[in-house]
Each structure stands twice: as C-alpha cells, then as structure tokens.
Write a structure and sequence with these properties.
The protein is mostly beta strands and 281 residues long. It is 0% helix and 61% strand.
Length: 281
C-alpha cells in the first residue's frame, strides 16, 4: 500500500523557461505527439514498529522489509492524450521464519488526458492494474503478507501551482478502487491519497523538494463494510533530483518517515531511488 505515493515522485518539477528541460515535465503536463518517457522507481520500506490506539508506537518483535519496483511507460499521442503501461513488482522478507517472496502485483494500461484548455497545468490519469500472481496475501500459507490481493483501478488528478521562478507547489488527489480477489477484505473498497510537494530549483539541473501525504482507507476490516476514514497513515519526506544528462536522464533520491497512523498501521520509513528517461522529438 505504501507504494501509493511513489508513482509521482519521479517528476514533480517546476515549469522552467527552457522548453526542453526535464523540469518542464511534471505529472500535470502531457507529452507531445511522438514523445515518450520511461520511469523506474525503487522503494524500500522497512519497519519494526506499528502505531497503537493512542498514536504511540509498539514493537512488532521483528523487522519487515517491503521492496517495490514501479516501472512506467508513457507515450504522447498528442498534447491532449497520452497512453502507456505500468509494471509493479514487489518483494517481502522478514527477520523471522516467514521467508521471502517476489511477484508482479500489478500490470496494465493507463491513459492520461488534459481536459481543460484554460488549465494546462491540470491533468487526469487513469490506470488499471491486474496481479500476475496468486495468493498475494498468503491466505493459504504461513508466509508474510505481500500485497493487497486483487486488481486496482487508480485515478489521479495532478495540478501544478508555480510560486516563483525557483519554487512550486504540486498537488495530487488520487482514488484507489480495489477490486478484491483472495483477500481478508471481503468486499471491494476505496482508498484516497492526498499529496503535496514543495519544490525548490537551485538551477535547471537540481531540484530539492519536501513532501507530505495523507492516505486513508475507507473500509472497516472488522465489520467487512465500507466506512469513511476507518484507517489511515501519514508520511513525510525530503528528496532531490539531478539531471545526469540534461534533457534526457534524471536521477532521484527520496527519504520518507511514517510518523502518524491509526492502530495497526506501520510506523516505518522508506529509502527510494529513481531514474527517468525522456525522449523528445
């Protein structure tokens, strides 16, 4: 679940005056005809504690590591419609006897549109992901939980708000509709993700940013029914991006900490590395 924020980290940039600078290509901006992008983001989440009912942290008695590789391709049909595909790969291992497992937890198409001519810094993206492995929650074994079992329909709204030539705010509102399969949750359910990024641009090759995200799940696990804001977590972090080859290849590093959550939510942290390649005509 904590992979949710990492699909937008690779490209939250300010629109600079140089038209072919990679900082132009935020999630809110579509590619022109024939242009394309490949992104790969590697996320390692680790935890030894969880939140209790009072907001404190309790020791789980073991370390859990979740590694997620999010790989994305986007192609410009024109500056109003882009299409592409995602592959999400996940691994889990623990410090006890529950072992390790790796699987493709999501694979599928996506489409991105710019619906308003007078709001060029706003876009909408819709992705549908199918799992390519069975029993992701390990319901039939004693292995560790890998990923919520089922398909995912992910809809995201992106918006940029430039503050100055060197600063910008970026907003994302996402709706994760989970279609359950072999899951401990018996019904389909909704999660919402609200993210905000503040970016500073020392020059056209470097970006420094801070972020925060609120991610509630609108489902009561005990009653097995929908319930608004039943559980949640909050994470915040700081990151940087660097254009290794200007206008072509960009690298990224991000650290986040899960500092607030409902009872049972993980109180861990993440280390993230990303690479983005853009090809422009």
């Amino acid at each position: 679940m904590r992979i949710v924020v990492f699909t937008i980290f690779v490209s939250a940039f300010f629109l600079s005056s140089a038209q072919n600078n990679l900082q132009n290509y935020t999630p809110s901006i579509l590619f022109g005809k024939g242009d394309w992008e490949i992104k790969s983001f590697q996320n390692l989440y680790t935890q030894t504690k969880s939140f209790d009912g009072s907001g404190g942290k309790v020791d789980n008695g073991r370390r859990e590591n979740y590694f997620t590789s999010i790989n994305q391709f986007l192609f410009g049909l024109n500056d109003k419609i882009n299409v592409g595909a995602d592959v999400w790969i996940k691994n889990v291992n623990t410090s006890d006897d529950q072992g390790s497992r790796t699987a493709v937890v999501g694979f599928g198409p996506k489409i991105k549109i710019a619906p308003f001519n007078d709001l060029k810094k706003l876009s909408i993206q819709s992705t549908f992901l199918f799992p390519l492995a069975e029993d992701l929650e390990n319901q039939t074994s004693s292995d560790a939980f890998l990923h919520p079992d089922g398909s995912l329909w992910l809809n995201q709204i992106f918006y940029d708000l430039p503050l100055s030539e060197k600063t910008q705010l970026f907003f994302q509102q996402a709706f994760w509709y989970n279609l359950t399969r072999d899951s401990f949750r018996e019904n389909n359910y909704l999660q919402t993700q609200t993210s905000i990024f503040f970016s500073y641009f020392p020059n056209t090759r470097w970006t420094i940013y801070g972020m925060s995200e609120y991610f509630p799940t609108h489902y009561n696990d005990q009653r097995q029914t929908g319930e608004a804001f039943f559980s949640y977590f909050v994470q915040s972090g700081i990151g940087t991006k660097y254009q290794l080859i200007p206008n072509f290849i960009e690298l990224e590093f991000l650290y986040t900490n899960f500092w607030l959550g409902s009872e049972g939510a993980g109180a861990g942290e993440t280390i993230n590395l990303g690479i983005r390649v853009i090809r422009q005509k």
